[in-house]
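fwd from M.: "can u put these together and see what the complex looks like"

so here's what she sent:
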Amino acid sequence: MSEAVVRSNAVEVKPPTKKPASPWRLALREMRKNKLAMAGFVVLILMFLFCFVGPLLSPYSINDAMNVRNGNKPPSAQHWLGTDKVGRDVLLRVMLAGRTSLLVGIVAMMVSVAIGSTLGAIAGYYRGWVDTIIMRLADIIMSIPSLPILIILGAALSELKMDPANRIYLVMFIIGFLSWPGLARLVRGQILMLREQEFMQAAEVLGLRDRRKIFRHLLPNTVPIIIVVATLSVANGILTESVLSFLGLGVVPPTPSWGNMISAANSMIEFQKRPWLWIPPGVCIFITVVAINVMGDGLRDALDPKSKR
Amino acid sequence: MTTQVIRRLLQTIPTLIGVSIVLVLIFHLIPGNFVDSNPTISKERAAELKEMYGLTDPVHIKYLKWAKGVATGDLGYSIQHKQPVTTIIDRYVWNSVLIAGVVLIFSWTIAIFVGVFSAVRQHSFYDGLITFLVFAVMSLPSFFIGLLAIKFFAVDNRIFPVGGMITTGANYEGWAHIWDVIEHMFLPVIVLTALNVGGLTRYFRTSMLDVIKQDFIRTARAKGLKERTVIFKHALRNALIPAITLLGFEIPGLFAGAMITEKIFNWPGIGSIFLNAINARDYFLMLGYTFFIAFLTIIGNVIADLLYRVADPRVRMK
Amino acid sequence: MANNLIEFRNLRTNFYTSSGVVKAVNDVSFSIREGETLCVVGESGCGKSVTAMSLMRLVSPPGKTEGGQILYKGQDLLTLKERDMRHIRGNEIAMIFQEPMTSLNPVLTIGDQITEPLLIHKGMTRKDAKKRAIELIELVGIPRAAKIFDSYPHELSGGMRQRIMIAIALSCDPKLLIADEPTTALDVTIQAQILDLMRNIKSEFNTAIMMITHDLGVVAEMADHVVVMYAGKVIEEAPVHELFANPKHPYTQGLMRAKPIINQRQDRLYTIPGQVPNPVELGNNCYFNERCEHCMSLCVEKPPILTTYENKHKAACWLYEKGGEVS
Amino acid sequence: MKKKLLILLSAVMAFSLILSACGGGDAAKPADPGTKVETPAEGENAGETPAEGELVTEGTIKATDPSKSPANATARKDTVIVGMPAPSGVFHPQYSEIAYDVYVTETIFASILQVQKDGTYAPSLGNYKVSEDKKTLTFTLEDAKFSDGKPVTAEDVAFTFTLFYDKSYDGPTDAYAYAPIVGAKDYKEGKAQSISGIKVVDPKTLEVTLETPSVLALDVFGVAGILPKHVYGAAYKPGDLSKMKDTFTKPVGAGPYKLEKFVAGQEVVFKANEHYFKGAPKVPNLIYKVTTEETNMQLVQTGDTDGETNISASLDNVEAIKSLEFADLTLNPTNGYGYIGLNHKDERFKDKKVRQALVYGLQRQEIVDGVYQGLADVVNVPQSKVSWAYTDEVNKYDYDLEKAKALLDEAGWKEGADGIREKDGKKFKITFTASTPNAVNEVLIPIAKENYAKLGIEFVPDQMDFNALQDKVKKGDFEMVFLAVGLTPNPQTAQGTLRTGGNQNDYFFSNARVDELFKLANEEFDLDKRKAYYKEIYQIANEEVAHIYLYQRRDTLTANARVKGFDVSPYKRFTFDTPVIEIQ
């Protein structure tokens, strides 16, 4: 049943007036009640620890020489998750790959948020031709199918004499760059609404500069929506990277990422014979993305005043 | 109405031009080309061929030549297939459309029902379970789900065919042929639907939650309508209308998703051809196909936009 | 004296919110007689709307009707099967709401929405239903009914929409019409028209009306009988003239004083001091005690009981309770 | 046409099939945690494959129990289904470029000559004779008919040959470079209506006159699928072959089968050509089914296919096929090889001693075994060991660290304080351009890094996308690079890589004697004489270290044992067996 009735009846009841809770504290409280979201948060923290602290505890190191004679060994006491084709410890690789994948997701998100919120805010604030140009640009990027363009950019930019170790940054930026229009639209919508509100007239009266108005007064008000989109786009970044890796255009070996680890096990025989190669990275992607998604969903519920119980 | 349609169509022109410029620029940057990958031809011959294909033109000439062709419905010449790009697209795209269409229908139907159910039972155990499941299928890379599906459904248990679109050598006719194709569609459709349905389900859930809180739902209930009528006639209709605009953006998503599944399930669609084209550096096929999808997206958006105006009485065109 | 159409007996509806249990309707009893207009008065959040929704059995989670009975024609509505209850809603008991702008479904035509109850409750054919719907539209005073039938809500003004809501509510000749602040969101002139319309309906069809309002002007104009609610409880109940002439409860008195009176210039309107108490933290006392001018020690110790006095006047206040003075 | 395999090979590299590797039977003990994994002892020699016992790495492994063939395969009494990656639908012998289109055209069209298992040409639809001055080739035809029943005549052959020289011909054959016919230039430039060097003598005889003698002309004319002029003539307009492209999916030829149906991306269905001049094929229906790397093995297993051309030769796959028991597996050396290219313009690599040191100092066997587990050989010449022109009378360059060090010392590269060799104040640091993802590089890079460190050379990998790499190589912008190349039956094509200024010679290798030998060989049609020339070429390439030759891997052909008669070699593809295969 809906909450409509509740809203029109019971919620007229004034909220408890114990402490004037800030919206953030309210959101946090709301978050804490969402068990699924909290679980996601905890899992995510564990995953970060696993990836960033784990390798320090491993007896192996990325600089270990490869030894093909020790390759494709099933899990054992020495190698808990076995070894890959060229004899590297899968557990260590999974952890290091996690660093890459998480980093890709986070940086891609930051790029997307930086571009998306700035352009969105500018478009929403200035309106007119600035808005038209920015939104047209967003349209263009949104209407180009992202996967082909990712593939092509990946190929085109490999022209830059790029060390494969640095290529992940490229991947991050491409993923980030292609995902800003969605956020820009959301932010623009919010800003269009906000700029008509009274506190903005106050800012107007104070004679603040545009930049200050946009970045100090307007944008902060869109933070909840940005946070939600940002969270979800981290998950998206991780998935996109893995698909690119499958096509051989993502993070390239020897730098491990979850995506390229799975795609290294690309034949059915490998799939059946050596599950330790693809199950660990697969499970890691799964856990991480689910965790981020449920957390993002929880955040959305918590930060969205409309969905308050 | 007609003027609205025309105006809306005219508005797409700058976007289309923008898209085409961006595409040509990007494609121009791609290293390697088809001709140079043939090791048996002399340098003179290679130069001759590149000239013939217009690969040596500076980028603005390339753009103008190509744009001129596009304006007349010619997307260029596939060097690899030695055919016009439109012929190649026509040869393979329908198989992709078939999958995309079925996936679209399935994923929307499922997403609507699940999303509605989940919204109606908000915060219940079912809602939590569905939320989790939805995120679960969204949380695996498409190729991985595809490979897993083949492993479990086609290799370990031979429930579905391993891949392809028809049983080779069977020469089925009529219904047998149709059933054969359907059988081969199962796995790719399941995988693509699973991937597609998650986001949509969330969308419908949120959208339904918004609608269910509206006053007119209370009115409908107060009329003594059955809950089913309230949800599906009164609430869903309101939730669906804004979703129409989503349809436009479904197109690139579906075709992009299909690229991976076609590759894995050996489905003879345009996606796998495109992937090959990239690897072979079949310049115009890459460019043509990408532009084709962009074009579909833009047109899809226009149609969605117009449909929205038809469907929503509040903005209905007079 | 007419029969009781509806009888609330010790109704309790609670809301389980994240901050605690809200007793939105707390042991409420009163009745509505056939053909009578009963007004329920109170501030926002006093539980008057929830009482109505409880009657319709449309309280939705986290709210729950947990005690008491609502007798309609001798049947307890609260124990009715959902199917039977559906047959009562919109058919025997109809309801109109405060926000005419949002209470109609924006994507369905007016005609669709008016004919809906006719089709399901009266089993009419589409054709008959349309005919009846057009009659109803005319009945509520909207000209060019046939054209309106095919329009969408956004094409109508607020007043017209509220008329349409009334038409929908009347479509099945209900025994009881619940009107939840039907005029609050409307212009004053429109308000008067809507109230006129409702009065006409009442006299024409002998429909009982349960009108929920916070506007004593509306009460004076419409009511036969008045129930005053405060913080989920009925604190006073009386025939309209009796109440206006002789308000007993300090809260009611406050309400009366807070009402501007025409031709009488006041420097300041009277306001009842203090705030509505936090519904979660209600103690075992008179909920009005903090704001009451006449607060006594007893008032903070024990809740007063609704007691019947002369002229069918009921009130829940220790001031009139001898027992109160004793203990 | 010969180039298709090369294309296939590049494609293979581009997609970089990750050849699954298996350490099965590896006796090496797992290293203790925390210690560096030991690399095999220095000087340990190649040759031994993992202690697997008798790993057959070449030839045919017969099915052990043909009766295990799946029922649905056995049920096909008149149809053979062969799996392969998708052909693109260019079914025209002069245009088909990717290997799978070539498979189809070879099945539908017949050519005058046909390649044998050792790479030599044998008469097929006809034969040829060379004139005294070696400039005139006379082709004679057998009595043969096209699948539509019309006879094959010299007119058809002339028509076919002429197409190669059309101005608008954009197929993969560089006809003029291989077979400079008299008058071809004039024809191409539109100055002549026909090519004066192509002369129909009588309906069974055709004379072709070349400007200069070229043994490569056979690679154009000998293997060109003959087009029936009465069918294709309608689509032919000099200077505008656009209509020819409409005929791609409606091929008509004189080959063993005719096209019944082409379902793009799915299958190519053939019917036996009852007019085939060597007698109608025994199998009435032949289907090429599109398969993918991921699942082609499963299709053989389920009986969906009777044969599969594209299962990569890895230990995993070999074992899996063996375990099917009903399938014959043919392992052939791939007609190509992998090598490390050196930029001969680089000052350091100009010194032969340095180049040799780089070969001696690299554990090639270790690398090759690491990648292919025995299913590949280390090679020392740029030729397949099954070719008639092959020689192994060359330096084997077995791993020899001391010798490598000595050579570098001699070359003036002295070890510096940091252990890195230097000369004239310059450190010896090699940037290694490598494509990624790539299975070979994955193994090669760590081993080479370590090997060369021992030599006092810093080895820095620079990994990139395959196409980017190719671009760099074309521009000469590299020092050292790993690549693989395909071979053709005619050893003469190697001139592209070894001759000064050769089209494939991106490494600036230049040797006057090699240039001379190639010229001599190209003007000689006698096999024995040519063999001697090539031998010398290979010896020079080996001695001079034109490239660091690495390996020749394996290709497979898997066939359900119910189909008999496949007898393939790296040169002779299964398509040539289609007229003779039988179902048991």
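replying to her w this: Chain D touches chain B through 60 residues (CB under 8 Å).
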